[in-house]
């Protein structure tokens, strides 16, 4: 029995495992969806979270079309009886508890706060799906992207304020803050005294005078007052489009394979606003 | 009365200046005045003229129209408990505006919001007065108002749930609390025409309220067309409240309180109450909006929350005072 197991693992790492032997996995979180789609074999993916096909929030929404969508609740997961359920660390607590009670293995992924966290999560998912070679390749891709973007950002030391709807500022101890710090940009959030993040008033932002704003959307349409904040004339005066770095939400809302693309996009945006 | 009005106008002017001087960034009164007239640094000018000035203008105008609407409704119905918020008008206007936000069809800074708000405010007051009939008792009006606000509230929640915007629930929940923060001149442009039109309409009917206070029949014999008056007042209140709610969310109870504060000073003549009530409404909203910026808190307190916290006990006090009339209304 042990020998048989050892052989399976041996073959698995060699990349020639029989698909039937690899763990079958269901994801109930948007961020684990992305990791799973990147690292697992299609046959291993039993289902993805309800937002997996949402083009605005899901990085690989196109690929998600190929897989079934789950409700995100416990019922359909129980019916599928996956070997592993991957989920976020904080959302859907009741669902996770229920699944654990029913004897399913639930692997929880924390919210990453640094590039090291991101690498750890990629490797962890690689181990879960038994494709650690793919995880290593993703980590290498991420490191290459960091190096590329750092080169662009190093030309001048900019102060950037990562700003979201209603004036939410991502702090230095958040994924966005980590992204800025990794490539050598100064986060203006520190001058506001925000570590994890918090709300800043329009007045405070215009007095703070960061070089650029980092936003998740560049459109001029305010679908609600939260977006209207970012389009306030006082902010537009000092930060027209040429002073706004735009990183789409789907590149920055999770830590995972999309980080490489986020970094490359950031480099492109920096080049655009420098022009 | 003229002395009172002048004193109120001075108070409103001072509060408006106070509003310009209050905010998260500390600016001295001299700096504020300097920046207001084009001096000071770029940032100071922007803070005073583009962030604080629209806020002060909206506070002044919306407070005034709420106070005026309250006084007009109390005059029309000869009823001291009448006010837009007890009739469900702001709640209904909010439903109209929320529908626009939740559907995501229109920019929140477009005309769609005030138009939807005004339409729903008109519908609600119209329905309420149709249900209540011509000489409705207090109890009937309040019950009908309660029913309409509950319906508007439920419809609003339903729309929130059905929205495709994942932030809709949070955004709308915040918005419903009523706030003047971070409004711009775009919002002023949206609300002011409707507020002005509503105010002109209500003021144009001012002498009719005095005639009406002598009783409906006497008013008819004095040449007041009561049916027409009712319709004009509803339109005026709907324009004002709908326009206001569309840019600030629901700010309640100012319309109820303002006329009551003025009665001991001005007397019970509904015609003479209109202008002082409007000024009192402005003063109340400006003061409340200054208070929410001064009270220390981690996130902003919403001005609508503050007006309700002050307004509801006042409403209870009025109910206690009117207990006999309310008790008699059951029969």
Largest protein interface, residues of each chain: A-B, 27 and 30 residues
Q: Please, how many helices of chain B?
A: 15
The overall average pLDDT of chain A, rounded, is: 88
Query: How many strands, what sense, and barrel or not for the largest sheet of chain A?
Result: 6 strands, mixed
Task: Determine the oligomeric state from the structure.
Answer: heterodimer
Percent of residues in beta strands of chain A: 5-15%
Structural class of chain B: mainly alpha
Task: Report helical residue fraction of chain B.
Answer: over 70%
- Runs of chain B in which pLDDT lies below 50 for 5 or more consecutive residues are none
- Which of globular, elongated, flat, extended, rod-shaped describes the shape of chain B? globular
CATH superfamily of chain B: ABC transporter involved in vitamin B12 uptake, BtuC
Question: What is the rounded Rg of chain B?
Answer: 20 Å
The DSSP helix count of chain A reads 13
Mean pLDDT of chain B: 89
CATH topology of chain B: ABC transporter involved in vitamin B12 uptake, BtuC
Number of strands of chain A: 10
State the order of secondary-structure elements of chain A, H for helix, E for strand.
HEHEHHEHEHHEEHEEHEHHEHH
CATH architecture of the largest domain in chain A: 3-Layer(aba) Sandwich
């Amino acid at each position: 029995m042990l020998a048989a197991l050892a052989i399976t693992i041996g073959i698995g790492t060699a990349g020639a495992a029989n698909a039937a032997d690899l763990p079958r996995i269901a994801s109930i979180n948007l961020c684990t969806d992305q990791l799973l789609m990147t690292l697992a074999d299609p046959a291993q993916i039993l289902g993805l979270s309800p937002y997996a096909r949402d083009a605005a929030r899901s990085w690989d929404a196109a690929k998600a079309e190929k897989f079934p969508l789950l409700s995100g609740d416990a019922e359909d997961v129980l019916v599928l009886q996956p070997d592993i359920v991957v989920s976020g660390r904080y959302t859907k607590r009741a669902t996770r508890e229920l699944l654990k009670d029913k004897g399913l293995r639930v692997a929880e992924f924390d919210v990453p706060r640094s590039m090291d966290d991101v690498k750890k999560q990629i490797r962890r998912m690689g181990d879960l799906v038994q494709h650690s070679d793919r995880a290593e390749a993703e980590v290498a891709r991420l490191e290459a992207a960091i190096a590329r973007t750092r080169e662009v950002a190093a030309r001048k030391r900019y102060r950037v304020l990562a700003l979201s709807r209603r004036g939410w500022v991502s702090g230095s101890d958040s994924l966005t803050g980590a992204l800025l710090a990794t490539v050598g940009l100064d986060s203006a959030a520190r001058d506001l005294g925000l570590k994890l993040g918090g709300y800043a008033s329009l007045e405070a932002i215009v007095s703070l005078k960061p070089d650029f704003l980092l936003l998740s959307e560049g459109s001029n349409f305010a679908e609600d007052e939260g977006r209207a904040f970012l389009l306030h004339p006082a902010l537009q005066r000092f930060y027209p489009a040429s002073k706004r770095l735009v990183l789409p939400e789907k590149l920055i809302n999770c830590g995972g394979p999309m980080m490489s693309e986020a970094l490359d996009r950031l480099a492109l945006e920096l080049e655009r606003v420098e022009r | 009365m003229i002395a009172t009005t002048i004193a109120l106008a001075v108070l409103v002017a001072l509060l408006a200046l106070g509003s310009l001087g209050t905010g998260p960034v500390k600016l001295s009164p001299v700096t504020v005045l300097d920046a207001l007239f084009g001096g000071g640094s770029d940032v100071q000018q922007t803070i005073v003229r583009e962030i604080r000035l629209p806020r002060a203008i909206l506070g002044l105008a919306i407070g005034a129209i709420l106070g005026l609407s309250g006084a007009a409704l109390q005059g029309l119905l000869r009823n001291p408990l009448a006010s837009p918020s007890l009739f469900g008008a702001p709640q209904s206007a909010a439903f109209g505006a929320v529908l626009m936000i939740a559907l995501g069809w229109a920019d929140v800074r477009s005309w769609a919001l005030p138009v939807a708000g005004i339409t729903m405010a008109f519908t609600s007051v119209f329905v309420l007065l149709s249900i209540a009939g011509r000489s409705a008792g207090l109890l009937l009006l309040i019950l009908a108002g309660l029913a309409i606000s509950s319906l508007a509230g439920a419809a609003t929640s339903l729309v929130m749930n059905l929205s495709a915007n994942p932030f809709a629930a949070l955004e709308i929940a915040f918005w419903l609390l009523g706030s003047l923060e971070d409004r711009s001149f775009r919002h002023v442009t949206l609300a002011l025409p409707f507020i002005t039109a509503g105010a002109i309409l209500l003021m144009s009917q001012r002498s009719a309220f005095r005639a009406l206070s002598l009783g409906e029949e006497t008013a008819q014999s004095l040449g007041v067309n009561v049916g027409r008056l009712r319709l004009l007042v509803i339109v005026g209140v709907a324009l004002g409240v709908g326009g206001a709610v569309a840019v600030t969310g629901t700010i309640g109870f100012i319309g109820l309180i303002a006329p009551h504060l003025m009665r001991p000073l001005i007397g019970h003549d509904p015609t003479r109450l209109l202008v002082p009530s409007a000024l009192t409404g402005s003063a109340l909203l400006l003061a409340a909006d200054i208070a929410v910026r001064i009270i220390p808190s981690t996130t902003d307190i919403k001005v609508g929350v503050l007006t309700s916290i002050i307004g509801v006990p006042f409403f209870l006090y009025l109910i206690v005072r009117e207990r006999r009339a309310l008790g008699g209304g059951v029969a």
